[in-house]
């Protein structure tokens, strides 16, 4: 065989190893290790147990007096709005082992479904997504992040159907409060009916879920969230965590994050008018304003990646940088927190830049994409003039 033939064979082997073998092996090994853990050692256990409790009309929330002074890696009490517990009630009716394997499989399908709704057709993009650290962690420990990825992708896909996008945004916010900026996407793009449906559906679902458990935990819920921020926030990768690492107090760090979130929200609503760039920027506001940010939250980065690059491009490789720090906890290391935030900002920045009209991209000194990287139409978009 000639030297050129050897090189060609080597490149083909490397291609299949990277895009096929690597995602399968890593997802399989990591998934099996995570699924082998017993009850109490995964996020899915938290949801499954909360689902069983609300099925019997019980209180899924921990008593504030029972919270520890220091949180460890397995500390994961249920602190979500009660809607999330009822969403897991069907799985909670199954034995834990059966339910966790089923949820693992559903998460894998959900990743593919979300990318499909974002009109991603290149199979290599799916491989890279499954090999990324955020999706690996989310599928392994059974978080709610991948279902949220599907909901946000569906909200974009059906953005011009008020009866669809309204409940989808309501579901996202009521299941995970840090996604509250998405409601302003509906308002800013003058989707008044969808915004009203989202607000009404979210309020009604929350009240109904709390009423079903006798409003247990409602009075102490704000205090519970504050205590959880103080316990878990410093171990995450948020701006709040970065402040705590450098010595800022709990209350001051929380206030700074709130102010930054409000200022960022106002600036985005004031300056960003394009539909696609607006939802991407508001996802950035959500990451900035949350006091608790775990690596699996970053599965939502595949929304901006899929929207602006439906075919394989350099943008798809950016989340792989998160493997440089695959730990779920930052351990109070400022550089690790900065690294995680940098990758999130890099992806969002690149995606927003790609969504600019070609003339504006050229004016910014960036060369145009090659034909293999060109954006595919995302459908009719509405913008506020």
Q: Can you put this structure into words, describing what you see?
A:
This protein is 63% helix and 0% strand. It is mainly α and 385 residues long. The longest helix is centred in the first third of the chain and has 33 residues, at 3-35. The protein is built from 18 helices and no strands. It has one domain (3-61, 80-219, 229-356). The model is unreliable at 365-385 (pLDDT under 50). The termini are far apart.
Sum up the structure in keywords.
385 residues, mainly alpha, 63% helix
Range of helix content: 55-70%
In terms of quaternary structure, the protein is single chain
End-to-end C-alpha gap:
63 Å
Helix and strand composition category: mainly alpha
Topology as a string of helices (H) and strands (E) = HHHHHHHHHHHHHHHHHH
Helix segment tally: 18
Low-confidence residue ranges: 365-385
Structural Rg: 21 Å
What's the number of extended β-strand segments? 0
Determine the strand fraction and express it as a percent band: under 5%
What's the number of domains? 1
Give the overall shape.
globular
- Mean pLDDT across all residues, rounded? 86
Biggest sheet details: none
In short:
With 385 residues, the chain is an all-alpha fold. It has helices at residues 3-35, 43-55, 82-87, 89-92, 96-117, 123-131, 133-141, 145-157, 162-175, 181-188, 192-212, 221-232, 239-245, 250-271, 275-289, 302-308, 334-354, 358-363.
Per-chain topology:
Elements (H helix, E strand, L loop, with lengths): L2 H33 L7 H13 L26 H6 L1 H4 L3 H22 L5 H9 L1 H9 L3 H13 L4 H14 L5 H8 L3 H21 L8 H12 L6 H7 L4 H22 L3 H15 L12 H7 L25 H21 L3 H6 L22
